[in-house]
Amino acid sequence: MAGRMVVGSAALAGLVRPASAPDPAGAHRMLPVAAELTGLLPSRGLRRGSTIAVAAGQPRHGGGTSLVLALLAEASRAGSWCAVVGVPTFGAGAAAEAGIALDRLALVPQPGPDWPTVVAALIDGVDVVVAAVPATVSASVANRLAARARQRGSVLVPYGRWDGADVTLQVVRGVWEGLGQGRGRLRRREVTICARGRGAAARPKEIKVWLPGDALTRVIPRPPVASGVSATGRSAAGRLRPVPPSSVAPRSVESPPSHAASSLSSAVPLSAAVPLSAAVPLSAAVPPSADAPPRRGALTMVGPA
User: Checking DSSP bridges between strand 52-54 and strand 184-197, what pairing results, if any?
Assistant: First the structure.
């Protein structure tokens, strides 16, 4: 009997572990997240059955959608199914760039009045469910959905105001990078994320991360511009340069000498000359006024002496 008791106690001791020891058997209940976000979550990952809310925050800060993409990326790469409900502006291209597998992503842009039913159905079969919270959702509906997620082992990520979440994440500050002195493009944003919750997450935490992640938006410095070469890569030797105006006054055109005029008139026979009266009717000729200045290029009629 005593031997049986010792064997039984030893077998029972093998099933008991200290609370501080790692739980290899429960590793499957944890979904991975980006390394930059592990410090915000009590379990350093998305624990199945938990509710992790993402507060929308103030419009001038933004960053909520980028934070949602960052939460889903690693779990999607690991093979988990994800769903996004009630976010019509959710971009599939941005999700793919963040690392989310589109073949394991379900989108319900407009759930309509059946929002609780749609979210509950997705909780039953999807690993991570992101749901934009309508303003009309009651506390009883929110509690039932959170309890369903605990029962099914899904991770519920409400996007908006949600009371009673295990952890609530919110972007509180953000600074863009990429713009220089009148040039450049927006490349990435350094955001400050605040985490608060209950239980192990009761103590608030703050971290600064790049959204999108630093691995996707690393800024490569430009090589120094060599002398004699412009910023566009062309040689400065062939570029056009502005030429200052010359200080030398333009020369006036002198009239031909008188002997040249006489020789010109002798070269044309008088028989070839056309009488002016035959070419232009005299009735149409208007004598110029004596006070009017001469016009450049106008014809001058010369009558007989």
Answer: unpaired
- Farthest-apart Cα atoms in the chain, separation: 160
What CA–CA distance (Å, rounded) separates 231 from 114?
A: 58
Please give the Cα distance from 260 to 243 (Å, whole number).
Answer: 39
Side-chain-facing half-sphere of 6: CA atoms under 13 Å: 2
Give the contacts of 67 (CB within 8 A, at least 6 positions apart). Answer: 54, 169, 171, 191, 193, 211
What number of residues does the chain have? 305
List pLDDT tens digits, range 147-190: 999 999 999 999 999 988 999 999 888 777 777 777 788 777 78
For 273, phi and psi rounded to 5 degrees? -75, 140
Bridge partners (DSSP) of residue 78 are none
15/218 Cα distance (integer angstroms):
48
Residue 156 CA neighbour count, 13 Å, CB half: 31
Q: What angle do CA 42, 141, 110 make, to 5 degrees?
A: 95
**Domains of the chain with CATH codes:** 28-169 (3.40.50.300)
**Of 106, 81, 79, which Cα lies nearest the Cα of 92?**
106
pTM: 0.60
53 CB neighbour count, 10 Å cutoff: 24
Closest CA to 195 of 37, 60, 33: 37
8-17, pLDDT tens digit by residue? 444 444 544 4
